[in-house]
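It is worth pausing here to work through a concrete case rather than discussing structure prediction in the abstract. The textbook approach is simple: state the sequence, then state the predicted structure, then interpret. We follow exactly that order.
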Amino acid sequence: MALPLKDLGSIKVSEAAHSYLRARATLKRVELVALVRDLVEAYVKEEIHISSMASEIHSAKGLGEIAGDLQ
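Step two, the predicted structure:
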């Protein structure tokens, strides 16, 4: 069962970004919206992974939670 999707509203991008995304969607034979959704999901997964790794590294140094040091 897929999780429900959240609406991000109308997202504006530059003409260059739109041309790139349109070309990529065309080459992959997917809808533009689906491509952008997949790119956002991949970006978020990578950022969460990086954050998790940074937190583990910080904790391994005995420095506690990294989030507390950033505030």
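Step three, interpretation. The chain has three helices and no strands. Residues 17 and 47 are 21 Å apart (CA to CA).
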